[in-house]
Structure formats: structure tokens, C-alpha cells
Design brief:
The complex is a heterodimer of chains A (323) and B (346). By secondary structure, chain A is an all-alpha fold. In chain A, 76% of the residues lie in helices and 0% in strands. Chain A is built from 13 helices and no strands. In chain A, α5 packs across α8, α5 packs antiparallel against α10 and α12 runs antiparallel to α13. The radius of gyration of chain A is 24 Å and the shape is globular. Chain B has a domain of 224 residues: MetI-like (MetI-like fold, Orthogonal Bundle). In chain B, 68% of the residues lie in helices and 1% in strands. Chain B is built from 16 helices and 2 strands. The longest helix of chain B has 37 residues. The chains are: A mainly alpha (323), B mainly alpha (346). At the A-B interface, α1, α6, α7, α8 and α10 of A face α1, α7, α8, α14 and α16 of B.
Chain lengths: 323, 346
């Protein structure tokens, strides 16, 4: 197990290297550079300033030289400065954007899990019944609905129709003071984005949970549990559910990183200052350093979660052996 | 307990069906069991209607989709014709069935354009993007997956690593970067595309980018299936009589995973339609004056506070939802029909 782990972690390095090379190359191919942003809206900016800054930032060199320098700084923990905000890119992303995204995605994960598991189990226990059909159709709708459109419709219903019942977007209302009012205000701002962001996960995980449960309840050990005279409740919740939920946890692990970048649409609709939105803006205005640090962070997250899932599998299922 | 009994009776039912039609091909059997799946059949019918509506869009509406009418902005949905509407609207034809010139069944948008007309026309682009991207992406994914699975060794290692890397890069940002690159006339390749494709460039770019970023799941799926089949006797037999590797892959292995691939292609179609709508919503997909369901929504959020403004958002979104929903139901029905192991489970 230890050698396996070391090998897997070492394999991450070349993979991350290729990903960074690919992303950097693609970003560098874009016409225009970060200096253009500075030049815009600054009449005193001369061609000489432009050339000097380009040389200062090394933007006059070919992209592979730029990449090499970027890499050199990154291994020392320096991700460069954001040209939009004039502060370190890593600080901007991790201090100001990541917490908002973690809040949004975390609540959405929590909600999805606590809805999907009971719904999936209930649906499986009533296979081909009315409840099952209803849950199935609803989860089909959840999988098929465009998230941003659902967000717009939620805004229309809760912010426009019931005028101001819930805020149409943003992080918080300015001018609210006191612990409880701030908390309440934050929750009101979170409700709609979390609902919109969770719709897909709830639907997918419900369907997954249902099929996993159906598969489990016909296995021999469940039959054994029943014939042993255990109550139906014990059979379902103690024996079947515990086994059926394992594959779902794997799926969740694989889905988590996608929540960080996949929230671009939700964050756009609800004007939520999170990471997805930061990446989108950074790409649009050529703020390479911000784009690179966030994209590399998410890629690393994906790889780590893949690894964690494999390890969790090995720990839980003794049949799997890694050499 | 009743559940297991039901599953059993279902199995018996399936076996009976098989016995009563001896010598029937796999595909005829699949078609028969697909027809029994009522929801999937209904979804299939709706999907066909949507596709026909998109194909015949210019003949199904009295209006031109780009024609603006500043005197009738944010009109409410209605089949009635306002007294002075006929003269102002300048229709292409006076009437299509009960839809007369001057009536707007879905209302009008911020520039006074008829929303139903635009939804019909938008369907052409959205469905074209969805079906072609899904088709080519599945084809590409199957090919890569099959080759990786059968060749094994270095080829497999390379393909698997490529799949892993492509899956680790966040999809939506990569889409944004690629679309931005290809659509930018300042990039050499982008300029070349403009020269070759002209106005339809945007549609082709979206299709290509969706393909580039969506073949991996199919490849992974097919690779797994091929590896499972690789050592079976019929493949051994083909090898023994000297069939080439290409022949074994294309004649013996791929037909055996056809059912999996077909289901995958269906589900991919829904995915592609959703990606197109998301990109166009962000303003990076299909560009006006061309119309797609996604770009109809791109400014709709700003109109929510206008009277009747919600219809600009409601109808395009409903059509995306309806289409993807139908595609997914059909996919589910196909899986049921093509893969007996899935009966009633997924």
C-alpha cells in the first residue's frame, strides 16, 4: 500500500506539469497581453512605457521562455501578481474568492447529499410504485435543466414576483450589522444559488443511489439478514444502506472538484464573487497569473480526489490489492 | 420480498418474449422492447416533432426571425391580432394555420421580434450543434477507446494518460479559453477558419470545441468494454484464422459494444445541447444575428423586471429543457431495450 501511494503521488507531478504547459500555452496564444488592461483608460501611457513594462514582465519573450520563468517562480511558491488588482494572484484567489466558493459548494454538497440519499432509497424501496415514478421523473428533469436558466427562473419567482422576498444576487446587503442579522442576510443570499447549483447533483445522485440500492437489496447477505429474522428497518438501514452508499461516496468524490469551476454559470447569474467567476473574468482580461493559479488549483484538486477515491476503495474493500 | 418476485416475473416475461420470436435479430428485439417503454416512446415522438419544427422553421411562421418591431416590444403572449398590428409587422406570409400575422403566441422580445419564431429558428442551431457534436464525439471516443483497449501496452498507456489529463483540467474554463482562441480573428488559426467558413464559423467552432472536450468519457467506457471482450473465444478464433488487428476491432469487437455506444451517443446529445446553451448564455457561443436557444437567453436576465420581460427567458429555456429531457428519456429507453441487464433498474 505504501509503495502504491508513493508511486501515485509521484505520478501526479508529470501530469500536473503537462496540464500547466497546456494551459499556459493556450493562454499565451491569445492575442493581447496583460499590459493592454493598464493602457486602457490611461491617456499618459506611452509606447515606451508599454515596451518597458513588457520587458519588465518578460512578455516580449516567446511563450516557452515565459512558461519556464513562471514555473521557476511557482516552485518557489510565487504565483505572480494579478494585473487587474495589483495584489498577489494567490492571495486574491485563495483569500478573497475561494472562501465564497467553498461556502456555496459546501452547502450545495450538503443539501444534495441529504436530499439524494433518502430520495434514492425511498424510490428503490417502492420500485415501480407511484413514489418511484415521481422521483424518477423529477430527477430526469433535474438532469436536463440548464442550471443558469433555473437560476433565472428562481430569481424571477422569488425576487421579482414576490418583490424582494429573496435577494436577486450578490454576497450580502451592505449596512447590515449584528451577528444574527448578518447571518440571516448571508443565508438569504445563499438560498437561491445553492438551490440552483444543487439541482444537477441532487438529480444525479438520487438516480445513482436508487440503482445502487436496488442492486444491493437483492444480494445474498440481505436475504440472509431477512431470514435471520431482523426487522425490515434493520435490514434496510443497517445492512443494505451501508453497502449501497459506498459507490455514491466515490461518485461524490469525483464530483466535488467540478463544483469549483462548474459554478461559473451559477456565480454569473447570481453575481456571486467566487472562483468560477474569477477564472472567467481573468481569462477575458488576460490576467494570466490569476487564471493559472486557479486552474492549476482545481486540476490538482481533481487529481487528489481521484487518488483519495482509489485509496478509500482499497481501504473499504479488502478484495482490492495494490502492489 | 415483493420486489424480487416482481423482478423474477419480469425475467420470465422477457424470456417468454424471446421464445415467442425465434430467429429474431438483436435489433428487432430491441425495437420491440423499446416500443413497450411508453415514456421513451412519447419522448421520441416529441423529439421528432421538435426536429421537424426546427427543419421547417422558415415555413412554419409568418415572421422573419430577425425582423425588429420597435412599436411592439415585450408584447404579451396571445393569439389575438391587435387592430394595427398587420400593417406594422410586415409579415413574410399572412397566416400559418391558426397563427395569423400580427399575433405572437409566445409574445415578443426586447426588440419586438416574435419569440416563437425565434425559438423555432433557434432550434435549428441548437439541435444541429447537439446532434453533430454528440455524433462525432462518440465516434472519436469509441475509436480511441477501442484502439487503446485492443492494442494495449504503450498505446493504451498513452491514451489513458491523455484521458486522465483531459479529465483533470476544469472543463468550462478550458471551453472558454478554446472558444476565445478559435473565434479571435487575431489568432492565425481563427483567421483561417473565418476565411474558410465565413458566417457559420461560430457554429463550427462550438461543435469542434464540444467534441474536443467530451470524447473522453466514451473512450473510457469503450476501452473498458473492449478489454473485457479481448480475451473471449470468438476474438481468439478470429486471431487464429489470421484476421488483422483492424479487422478484429472493427468487425468483431466494436459491433459487440454498439449498444453501449448508441446509448452513450444519446446521452451525449443532451449534454452537448446544455453546453451550447451555457456558452451562448455567457456570450461566447453562437453570436447574433444568428439565433440559438442559448443566445436568446444571454440578455434575458436583464429583462426580468420589465412587464412581460420574463417571456424572453421562459420559452427558450423551456425548449432546452424539453429537448434534453426527451433525449434523456429516449436514452433511458434505449438502454433498457439494448441491455437486458438494465431492465427496470436505471
Amino acid at each position: 500500500m505504501a509503495t502504491y501511494l508513493v508511486r501515485r503521488v509521484l505520478q501526479l507531478i508529470p501530469t500536473l506539469f503537462v496540464i500547466s504547459l497546456l494551459l499556459f500555452g493556450l493562454l499565451a496564444m491569445k492575442p493581447g497581453d496583460p499590459i493592454d488592461e493598464m493602457r486602457r483608460g490611461n491617456p499618459g501611457f506611452t509606447q515606451a512605457d508599454y515596451d518597458r513594462l513588457r520587458e519588465f514582465y518578460g512578455l516580449d519573450k516567446p511563450w516557452y521562455v515565459q512558461y519556464w520563468r513562471w514555473l521557476g517562480r511557482v516552485v518557489h511558491g510565487d504565483f505572480g501578481t494579478s494585473r487587474q488588482f495589483g495584489r498577489p494572484a494567490a492571495e486574491y484567489v485563495f483569500k478573497y474568492r475561494l472562501p465564497n466558493t467553498v461556502l456555496l459548494s459546501g452547502l450545495s454538497l450538503l443539501l444534495s447529499f441529504s436530499v439524494a440519499v433518502p430520495a434514492g432509497v425511498w424510490s428503490a424501496l417502492r420500485q415501480r410504485g407511484f413514489v418511484d415514478y415521481t422521483i424518477t421523473v423529477v430527477s430526469f428533469v433535474g438532469v436536463s435543466i440548464p442550471i443558469f436558466w433555473m437560476g433565472i427562473m428562481l430569481i424571477y419567482i422569488f425576487a421579482v414576483q414576490f418583490r424582494g422576498f429573496l435577494p436577486a444576487g450578490g454576497l450580502a446587503t451592505p449596512g447590515v450589522t449584528g451577528t444574527w442579522p448578518i447571518l440571516g442576510d448571508r443565508l438569504r443570499h445563499l438560498l437561491l444559488p445553492v438551490l440552483a447549483l444543487s439541482s444537477l447533483q441532487v438529480a444525479q445522485w438520487t438516480r445513482f443511489m436508487r440503482s445502487s440500492m436496488l442492486e444491493t437489496i437483492q444480494l445474498d447477505f440481505v436475504v440472509t439478514a431477512r431470514s435471520k429474522g431482523l426487522s425490515e428497518r434493520q435490514v434496510i438501514f443497517k445492512h443494505a444502506l451501508r453497502n449501497a452508499i459506498l459507490p455514491l461516496i466515490t461518485l461524490m468524490g469525483l464530483n466535488v472538484p467540478a463544483l469549483f469551476s462548474g459554478a461559473i454559470l451559477t456565480e454569473t447569474v447570481f453575481n456571486w464573487p467566487g472562483m468560477g467567476r474569477a477564472i472567467y473574468d481573468a481569462i477575458l482580461v488576460n490576467d494570466f497569473n490569476v487564471a493559472m493559479v486557479s486552474l492549476m488549483f482545481i486540476s490538482l484538486l481533481v487529481l487528489l480526489f481521484n487518488l483519495l477515491t482509489d485509496i478509500a476503495y482499497a481501504l473499504v474493500d479488502p478484495r482490492i490489492r495494490y502492489g | 420480498m415483493t420486489d424480487t418476485t416482481r423482478t423474477r416475473s419480469k425475467q420470465v416475461e422477457v424470456e417468454n418474449e424471446l421464445q415467442t420470436h425465434p430467429g429474431e435479430s438483436q435489433w428487432r428485439y430491441a425495437w420491440r422492447s423499446f416500443r413497450r417503454h411508453r415514456l421513451a416512446m412519447a419522448a421520441g415522438v416529441v423529439l421528432v416533432i421538435l426536429i421537424l419544427g426546427a427543419i421547417f422553421a422558415p415555413w412554419l411562421t409568418p415572421y422573419d426571425y430577425a425582423r425588429q418591431n420597435r412599436s411592439n416590444m415585450f408584447g404579451s403572449p396571445s393569439l389575438r391580432v391587435a387592430a394595427d398590428a398587420q400593417t406594422i409587422d410586415k409579415c413574410a406570409r399572412p397566416q400559418v394555420l391558426w397563427w395569423r400575422c400580427g399575433a405572437h403566441p409566445f409574445g415578443t422580445d426586447d426588440l419586438g421580434r416574435d419569440i416563437l419564431t425565434r425559438v423555432l429558428h433557434g432550434g435549428r442551431v441548437s439541435l444541429l450543434v447537439g446532434f453533430s457534436a454528440a455524433f462525432i464525439s462518440t465516434l472519436l471516443g469509441s475509436l480511441i477507446g477501442a484502439i487503446a483497449g485492443y492494442w494495449g501496452r504503450a498505446v493504451d498507456a498513452f491514451a489513458s494518460r491523455l484521458i486522465e489529463i483531459m479529465l483533470s483540467i476544469p472543463q468550462l474554463p478550458l471551453l472558454l479559453i478554446l472558444v476565445g482562441l478559435l473565434a479571435n480573428p487575431g489568432v492565425r488559426f481563427g483567421a483561417m477558419l473565418t476565411g474558410v467558413l465565413g458566417d457559420s464559423k461560430n457554429i463550427v467552432i462550438i461543435i469542434v470545441v464540444i467534441i474536443l472536450l467530451s470524447w473522453m468519457s466514451t473512450a473510457r467506457l469503450v476501452r473498458g468494454q473492449i478489454i473485457a471482450l479481448r480475451e473471449r473465444d470468438f476474438v481468439e478464433a478470429a486471431r487464429a484464422i489470421g484476421a488483422s488487428r483492424m479487422r478484429i476491432v472493427f468487425r468483431h469487437l466494436l459491433p459487440n459494444v454498439a449498444s453501449v455506444i448508441i446509448v452513450q451517443a444519446t446521452l451525449m446529445t443532451g449534454e452537448a445541447i446544455l453546453i451550447e446553451s451555457g456558452l451562448s448564455f455567457l456570450g461566447l457561443g453562437i453570436q447574433p444575428p444568428a439565433v440559438s436557444w442559448g443566445n436568446m437567453l444571454s440578455r434575458a436576465q436583464g429583462f426580468l423586471y420589465y412587464p412581460n420581460g420574463v417571456y424572453t427567458a421562459l420559452f427558450p429555456g423551456l425548449f432546452i429543457l424539453l429537448t434534453v429531457l426527451c433525449v434523456n428519456f429516449v436514452g433511458d429507453g434505449l438502454r433498457d431495450a439494448l441491455d437486458p441487464r438494465y431492465h427496470g433498474r436505471a
